[in-house]
Amino acid sequence: MVGTPLSREGLCTMILFDAEACDGPLPVLTDSALLAVLGQLQGATVAVVDRGLRVVYVNASFARWFGVPGHELIGRRLPDLYGAVAAAAFRPHLERAFTGEKVTYQRLVQEPGGRSVWHTISLVPWFSERGELQGLISSALPVHELQSTNEALRDAHQRLRAHMDNSPLAVVEMDADLALVHVSSRGQQWFGWRVEQHAGRSVLDLPGLETPAGPLAEALRRLQAGQELQNRVEATHRHPDGSLFHGVWFNSALLDAQGRTVSIMAQIEDVTELVESTQRLRDLARFDTLTGLINRGALMAQVDQSLSRVRGSPQGGQVALLFLDLDGFKLVNDLHGHRAGDEVLQWVARRLASAVRQTDTVARLGGDEFVVLLDNAVSDAVVQQVLSRILAAFDDPFVLPQGPVRLGVSVGVAVYPQVEGTVDELVGCADQAMYEAKRAGKGMVRYAEVAA
Ligand SMILES: Nc1nc2c(ncn2[C@@H]2O[C@H](COP(=O)(O)OP(=O)(O)OP(=O)(O)O)[C@@H](O)[C@H]2O)c(=O)[nH]1
């Protein structure tokens, strides 16, 4: 059939199926491509127009659409049939098709019953055997279901994206290789990631992750490997302005029918405030708020560790506890007020911290009581040296706005293993020795008694 001119009879035979369209004068169409195209258009609403947009062929469906016998449409111009508004809407498509391009577009069409239905409109250029453009074949097929489904999907997608962007969490979507696919606006803000800029790069290689090789990488790897469907992990990040933030990543994997991970979504919650307040609480539990030195509880834990280390070490070693109580401190409060007393305690803390070695520990037990713990390279000579520096730290007066204040200190010393016992016993021995120093006249140093 290809290449055979289509005769009036041939076309009429074809149009016999479209009885309404067939009566009346018919043009002779002479293109095999036209025949081929028309043959494939079963179920479609079809019209053929010449270069002047005059109708040369319509099928029954097209005639039904206009509610007139087909022959009444032959010779009429499309713009006249459809009206100016509709014609203006499809003119650009016609113009493209007249350049020789096959054009497909979708249009909401009012059906004869009044129902609006989405149609796919195809405009196929119709060429003569000599390659001259004769006109266009227009076909319309209803695609309502597909279109509605697409619209519903697009709506759902847009709603989901809007939810993602409104969420207080940052949402990051990755493919199975952890390459960035989508990042919500909050994620863009927190991490500085842009899909246009970072698409295809593994999230673990992007800027802003402080712990890329740590637990986060491991959690994502378990999802990639299909070992878990969801997990939760904490990680520390940096905002584009350089400030730190702590995030909890709630990750989930999407699997295909074969059970392979195809997508990973992370929803990240900013828990910086929580982490910082927990840290503050921990600090409060460990540190003395007035002086910033560690407190009694933290000191006891540290002495315990030091004793365990020395006891467990084949080389052994010494641990020295220097128990300090200020002499006549109550008078500072009484003379200058509690606030001045606080200031002196802060000064004492600073002077003690600079009197000891870097590896030594200074703690405030409460009131005017301090403990210095020496647990590293301790010898009798070292204890002596540190003691004399501590005593020297009280040589100079503490200068308050109210005037200079002179203070002394009494010190009790307990050195393990010369003094044996539990942490409490050791600290108790140093405390007892400090009382001996007080009794001996203050400003003195006394060693705890060594068990016979
Ligand atoms: N300013 C201030 N005073 C405190 C604080 N804690 C305890 N004190 C006071 O410190 C004093 C400690 O009492 P003592 O050790 O008996 O007083 P002291 O004058 O040093 O007596 P001696 O040790 O015998 O020389 C008390 O007056 C407490 O009220 C504090 O945090 N700030």
From TrEMBL:
<keyword id="KW-0548">Nucleotidyltransferase</keyword>
<dbReference type="GO" id="GO:0052621">
    <property type="term" value="F:diguanylate cyclase activity"/>
</dbReference>
<dbReference type="Pfam" id="PF00990">
    <property type="entry name" value="GGDEF"/>
</dbReference>
<dbReference type="InterPro" id="IPR013656">
    <property type="entry name" value="PAS_4"/>
</dbReference>
<dbReference type="InterPro" id="IPR052155">
    <property type="entry name" value="Biofilm_reg_signaling"/>
</dbReference>
<dbReference type="InterPro" id="IPR000160">
    <property type="entry name" value="GGDEF_dom"/>
</dbReference>
<protein>
    <submittedName>
        <fullName>Diguanylate cyclase</fullName>
        <ecNumber>2.7.7.65</ecNumber>
    </submittedName>
</protein>
<dbReference type="InterPro" id="IPR035965">
    <property type="entry name" value="PAS-like_dom_sf"/>
</dbReference>
<dbReference type="InterPro" id="IPR001610">
    <property type="entry name" value="PAC"/>
</dbReference>
<feature type="domain" description="PAS">
    <location>
        <begin position="30"/>
        <end position="101"/>
    </location>
</feature>
<dbReference type="InterPro" id="IPR000014">
    <property type="entry name" value="PAS"/>
</dbReference>
<keyword id="KW-0808">Transferase</keyword>
<dbReference type="InterPro" id="IPR029787">
    <property type="entry name" value="Nucleotide_cyclase"/>
</dbReference>
<feature type="domain" description="PAC">
    <location>
        <begin position="231"/>
        <end position="283"/>
    </location>
</feature>
<feature type="domain" description="GGDEF">
    <location>
        <begin position="317"/>
        <end position="450"/>
    </location>
</feature>
<dbReference type="InterPro" id="IPR043128">
    <property type="entry name" value="Rev_trsase/Diguanyl_cyclase"/>
</dbReference>
<dbReference type="InterPro" id="IPR000700">
    <property type="entry name" value="PAS-assoc_C"/>
</dbReference>
<dbReference type="Pfam" id="PF08448">
    <property type="entry name" value="PAS_4"/>
</dbReference>
